[in-house]
């Protein structure tokens, strides 16, 4: 599938870390982040240098939702 827009994985990780998320473990090509305030986690699939914009927005949305719930 061809995606027109993509975000660099390191930029996505940087945004998560700026919001208070911390990398706790890596399982294969998936990095699991947990927010410093709670128990919720967010998974970032790293299958290359870029992630489709649709997935990046979904991950950031999950991170924001989890952060607001706590």
Q: Can you characterise this structure?
A:
The chain is an alpha+beta fold and 70 residues long. The protein has a single domain, classed as 2-Layer Sandwich (Metal Transport, Frataxin, Chain A), CATH 3.30.920. It has 2 helices and 5 strands; from the N terminus they run βαββββα. It has helices at 9-18, 53-69, and strands at residues 6-8, 21-27, 30-35, 41-45, 50-52. Strands 2-3-4 form a 3-stranded antiparallel sheet. It has a two-stranded antiparallel sheet with strand order 1-5. The chain starts with 5 loop residues before the first strand and ends with a helix.
Index terms:
70 residues, alpha+beta, Metal Transport, Frataxin, Chain A, 3-stranded antiparallel beta sheet, 2 helices, 5 strands, 34% strand, globular
CATH structural architecture: 2-Layer Sandwich
Low-confidence stretches: none
CATH superfamily heading? Hypothetical protein
Per DSSP E runs of 2 or more residues, the count of β-strands stands at 5
Strand order of the largest sheet: 2-3-4
- Main sheet? 3 strands, antiparallel
Shape estimate? globular
The average pLDDT score comes to: 86
What's the gyration radius in Å? 12 Å
Tell me the CATH topology: Metal Transport, Frataxin, Chain A
Content-based structural category: alpha+beta
Helix-residue proportion: 25-40%
Number of helices: 2
The total number of structural domains is: 1
**Name of the CATH first level:** Alpha Beta
Spatial separation of the terminal alpha carbons: 36 Å
Question: Percent of residues in beta strands?
Answer: 25-35%
């Amino acid at each position: 599938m061809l995606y027109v827009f993509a975000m660099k994985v390191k930029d996505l990780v940087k945004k998560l870390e700026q919001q208070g998320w911390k990398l706790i473990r890596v399982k294969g090509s998936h990095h699991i982040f947990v927010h410093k305030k709670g128990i919720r986690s967010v998974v970032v699939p790293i299958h290359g240098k870029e992630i489709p914009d649709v997935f990046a927005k979904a991950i950031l949305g999950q991170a924001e939702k989890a952060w607001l719930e706590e």
